Amino acid sequence: MKKAIYPGSFDPLTLGHLDIIERSARIVDKLVVGVLNNSAKNSLFSLDERVSMIKEMTDSMPNVTVTSFNGLLVDYMREIDATIIVRGLRAVTDFEYELQIAQTNHVENPEVETIFLTTSLQYSYLSSTIVKEFASYGGDLSKFVPARFIDRIYDKYQIKK
């Protein structure tokens, strides 16, 4: 059985993230969306909120589960018995960083493989950082995030739409 993890902070979950989840779920037998509790980042949504939001969007995908984790990804992968990491690439600049991380993870655990999915063209510019920037000024988020999350994001910035 091919078990993969798609790790990230997902703060907030974007349509680009969802695209990678849907596409990678078709490739592997089981996909774990691993929400990282990154204390170095100032998160818009709590860890529990992010996990809950992703579960809402993936509940119709039977081979997808959503969990949170702390610490090193390769350690968590041993814990859940996963051997594949899924990463999305938007641009060449993403590749350089992601390649270093993939190689480091492989050195740490030679059984771990990383697969890169290029982002669908309509989401190649999109990041959670851009979503937060737009939201902070009350910008239109309808092309960036699932519709059901737009008001929740605006609420974090105390913006009424």
Which oligomerization state do the chains in this entry correspond to?
A: single chain
- Distance, first to last CA: 46 Å
Question: What is the string of helix and strand elements?
Answer: EHEHEHEHEHH
Largest sheet: 5 strands, parallel
Low-confidence runs of at least 5 consecutive residues: none
Read across the widest sheet, the strand sequence of neighbours is 3-2-1-4-5
**For the record, what is the CATH homologous superfamily label?**
HUPs
Percent of residues in helices? 40-55%
Secondary structure class reads alpha/beta
Question: What is the radius of gyration computed over CA atoms, rounded to a whole number of angstroms?
Answer: 16 Å
Shape: globular
Q: Under the CATH scheme, which class?
A: Alpha Beta
Count the E strands: 5
Return the CATH topology. Answer: Rossmann fold
- Percentage beta strand: 15-25%
Average pLDDT number:
96
- Distinct helical segment count: 6
What would your notes on this structure say?
- By secondary structure, the chain is α/β, with parallel strands linked by helices.
- It has one domain (3-122): 3-Layer(aba) Sandwich (Rossmann fold).
- The protein has six helices and five strands.
- The chain has helices at residues 15-25, 47-58, 73-80, 92-108, 128-136, 147-156, and strands at 3-8, 30-36, 64-69, 84-89, 113-118.
- It has a five-stranded parallel beta sheet with strand order 3-2-1-4-5, with helices on both faces.
- Helix 2 (47-58) links the parallel strand 2 (30-36) and strand 3.
- 30% of the residues are buried.
- The model has no long low-confidence stretch (mean pLDDT 96).
